Design the sequence.
């Protein structure tokens, strides 16, 4: 809010967002150009602006590479915003869909419905993931609240670890019992943007959009809630309603990300912290910037996933952890 | 904003209120008329319910019996944002998120005056600057709150509630863990706010002599009940201190201000705070 309160140079207010979006577009173009065959950026732009189905590169770009880049943008933005909101509301720097069990809850629900009941309807996936994430969130919150001292950052992370371990074991058991059905799910379970069905994205989009809208609308109040509940009440906020709204946003965003790409760890943890280094603690800035930075981060991670051991591809979810862990350690040493 | 300084008149009153946490009642049948434009200070031993009473007045806690009236309307039945335009709360031991700048913290006080469409106005900017001046934190405006000393940090929070521009401000132990010098400075600031700006302050305090030095109305609580209230001269007596705190103390006048000061009896045969 150094820019929000009394901006001294009004012309500069838009410079930051403009630069951020320009960088995001650049990463988007780069992501599309990279692959089994590198396609030059001008051709990428041409395919997007003036598509010609007789040009082979254009077909590759629009049918194969564009969806994957869009998945990366959506999933990165959703997980980062969910992480930012969770960190604000729980006043816990370690809060994140992965560490607090929401990702495994959503994944477990999808595994059961797809693997055991054999229902793979794309319309159902986000809903199932949302229910799973909600149950896991309630379980983690319940366990942490029941602990002596209540839902502190420590008890929340411990409860998240316990729920993650438990559900993770169940997922593995289901996996071992029915290897054939799980062949397809195995890659998804590591967090992957490859070969995902576009229909799932269409069904996840309303969830993602509503989650993002609620996140942006409540951002101002999340800043105050991060200063404590009594402060928020004193400022005239309806804390119960606010928490319910934020929970909805977090669940919707996590569910849409899991439905599209499976559990992708560390994105929701690393990105908001990095964003705060630049824009401060005002969630009116943290939320939109987390969306932009998260989208860019996952695009870059996915480029790395495809280039590191080319032509072999590493699952994107593994690279988010491989890159995210050292970045997080650096952040902890630098700032936290 | 519309701050008609109606010094002396009462706009906040507590009517036979009982309240507490969950099922346990802590505050029992308390009635109190808070004088306008003055410093009302609540004291009492640990667990006497003074903070609970303050939180109930600020609608953080519900009442189990009785009601709190703000301008004649029950606080708990008034839309919370409307209450926040007239009554501000500084909770006990507030913690600012790591890295939050002073100006950002103070700006939060403008929330009840803003809406989704009108997020920041000239009026907000003016109120924030003015609040930072009044609380003497303008020189730290762009520094992270967490970098400041305890006293400076507390002044930032006071600036936040000042930016809310309410007639009534409730403060829950604003001086805990601060040096005596810093405590006195803070209360001088608060007294100035009450007497010069005509705002009504209700403060929960721990330090008896600081309370006696500054209170316009002193309220003593014990076991959830209000046991004494009045101007310091009549309420702050050695008899009251013995009854409320179980403290054997002489109350003598301050040689300069003439206000009462309590001196605990520590000579042989007497134990401090003998229960």
Sequence:
């Amino acid at each position: 809010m150094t820019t929000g309160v009394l901006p001294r140079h009004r012309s500069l207010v838009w410079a930051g967002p403009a630069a951020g979006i320009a960088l995001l577009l650049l990463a988007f173009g780069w992501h599309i150009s990279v692959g089994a065959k590198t396609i030059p950026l001008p051709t990428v732009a041409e395919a997007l602006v003036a598509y010609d189905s007789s040009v082979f590169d254009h077909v590759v770009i629009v049918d194969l590479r564009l969806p994957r880049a869009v998945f990366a943008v959506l999933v990165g933005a959703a997980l980062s915003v969910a992480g930012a909101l969770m960190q604000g509301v729980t006043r816990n720097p370690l809060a994140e869909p992965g560490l607090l069990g929401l990702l495994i809850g959503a994944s477990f629900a999808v595994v059961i419905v797809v693997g055991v009941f054999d229902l793979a309807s794309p319309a159902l996936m986000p809903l199932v993931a949302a229910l799973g994430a909600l149950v896991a969130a309630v379980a983690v919150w319940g366990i942490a609240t029941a602990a002596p001292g209540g839902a502190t950052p420590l008890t929340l992370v411990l409860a998240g670890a316990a729920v993650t371990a438990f559900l993770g074991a169940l997922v593995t058991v289901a996996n071992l019992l029915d290897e054939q059905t799980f062949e397809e799910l195995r890659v998804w379970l590591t967090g992957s943007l490859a070969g995902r069905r576009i229909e799932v994205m269409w069904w996840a989009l309303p969830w993602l959009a509503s989650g993002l809208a609620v996140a942006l609308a409540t951002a101002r109040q999340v800043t105050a809630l991060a200063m404590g509940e009594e402060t928020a009440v004193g400022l005239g906020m309806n804390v119960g309603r606010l928490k319910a709204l934020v929970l909805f946003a977090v669940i919707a965003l996590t569910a849409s990300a899991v439905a599209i790409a499976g559990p992708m760890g560390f994105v929701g943890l690393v990105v908001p912290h990095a964003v705060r280094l630049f824009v401060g603690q005002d969630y009116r800035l943290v939320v939109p910037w987390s969306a932009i930075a998260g989208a860019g981060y996952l695009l870059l991670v996915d480029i790395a996933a495809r280039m590191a051991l080319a032509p072999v591809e590493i699952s994107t979810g593994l690279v988010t952890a491989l890159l995210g862990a050292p970045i997080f350690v650096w952040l902890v040493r630098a700032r936290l | 904003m519309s701050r008609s300084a109606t010094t002396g008149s009462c706009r906040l009153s507590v009517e036979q209120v009982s309240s507490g946490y969950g099922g346990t009642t802590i505050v029992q049948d308390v009635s109190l008329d808070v004088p306008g434009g003055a410093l009302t200070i609540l004291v009492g031993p640990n667990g006497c319910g003074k903070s609970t009473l303050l939180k109930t007045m600020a609608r953080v806690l519900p009442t189990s019996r009785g009601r709190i009236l703000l301008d004649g309307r029950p606080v708990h039945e008034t839309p919370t944002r409307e209450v926040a335009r007239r009554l501000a709360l500084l909770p006990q031991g507030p913690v600012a998120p790591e890295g939050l700048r002073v100006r950002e913290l103070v700006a939060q006080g403008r929330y009840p005056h803003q809406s989704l469409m009108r997020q920041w106005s000239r009026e907000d900017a003016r109120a924030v600057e003015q609040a930072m001046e009044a609380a003497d934190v303008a020189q730290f405006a762009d520094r992270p709150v967490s970098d400041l000393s305890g006293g400076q940090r507390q002044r930032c929070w006071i600036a936040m509630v000042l930016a809310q521009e309410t007639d009534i401000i409730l403060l829950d132990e604003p001086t805990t863990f601060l040096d005596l010098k810093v405590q006195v400075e803070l209360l001088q600031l608060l007294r100035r706010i009450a007497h010069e700006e005509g705002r009504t302050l209700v403060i929960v305090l721990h330090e008896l002599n600081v309370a006696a030095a500054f209170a316009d109305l002193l309220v003593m609580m014990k076991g959830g009940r209000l046991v004494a209230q009045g101007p310091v001269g009549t309420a702050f007596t050695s008899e009251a201190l013995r009854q409320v705190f179980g403290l054997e103390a002489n109350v003598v006048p301050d040689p300069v201000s003439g206000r009462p000061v309590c001196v605990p009896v520590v000579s042989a045969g007497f134990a401090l705070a003998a229960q």
Summary: Chain A is about 75% helix and 0% strand. Chain A touches chain B at residues 1-2, 4-6, 88, 91, 93, 217, 220-221, 223-224, 226-231, 233-238, 276, 280-282, 284, 335-336 (CB under 8 Å).
